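[Target chain]
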Amino acid sequence: MEQCNDPSSLSKADRKTIEKNRRNQMKGLYSELNSLVPHQQHSREVLSLPDQLEEAANYIKKLQIDLERMRQRKESLTVGENSSSITSSSGRKETLPLLPHLEIHHVDSSLDVVLITRIDYQFIFNDIIRMLHEENLEVINASYTLIGDTIFHSIHSKVGECATGYRAARISDRLKKFVGSGAS
């Protein structure tokens, strides 16, 4: 009974409880952090706490680099110049395609066109739609997104059941020549 009344023994018990709660809280936070980091599937060994923290730190650094690369790419696509470049994480300049930029994908009976232009080249979109109609392609869906002064166009069209790879290649060449001449 004397121990309970002794102020020094109460503070020791309180300190132990506080420290135990702190350790439990830290353990929970480490566990939560570890659950947010993607782990390699083939590794089933349990990592030590310092290794888990190092893995989390490396993952966060990788995410920061990826985010900066995406920011630079976005900025380079929305600047007012026709050509642009970004600086990679290694400090190297990477050149992006000149605008307008055209990508064409032919799969089975569909032809997908992705066109990236500046606002001052928006006429190209209308001309591409016209060309696809001239080639007897059925435009299934056409959409665009405006970011700054850059327009991202997407056109999904149906080539037809009897279309050959040669015909799709011919149409692709025609579109690429048109966009190439429109950029100059």
Q: What stands out?
A: The chain has five helices and six strands.
